[in-house]
Amino acid sequence: MYKALEDTSNAITHYESAITINPSYLTALNNLGSLYYNSADYEKAFVLYERVLKLDPAHATSLNNFAGILKHMGRLEE
User: Fold this and answer.
1) How far is CA 19 from CA 2, 54, 72, in A?
2) Whole-prediction pTM value?
3) What is the DSSP string of 39-77?
4) Are the C-beta atoms of 65 and 73 separated by less than 8 Å?
5) What are the pLDDT tens digits along the chain (78 aa)?
6) Computed from CA positions of residues 29, 32, 15, 47, in that sequence, does the dihedral angle turn out positive or negative?
């Protein structure tokens, strides 16, 4: 909801709360990564996408997001 309203700060707070309750909540991890990516906090986004892929290596959305952030960071060799 906050993401749709472009209230990034509240969206981040709520996704972090959701992840505290359920550390394996893939959608929250991925969406939080996207919020950080869109806020140009690429290292935090990288860590979150990587975390999703450790939990589910076939998570298509995070695979795509992870590839995009590697490209953006100039780390395609990974």
Assistant:
1) 16, 15, 26
2) 0.84
3) TT-HHHHHHHHHHHHHH-TT-HHHHHHHHHHHHHTT-TT
4) no
5) 434 446 788 899 999 999 999 999 999 999 999 999 999 999 999 999 999 999 999 999 999 998 888 888 787 666
6) positive
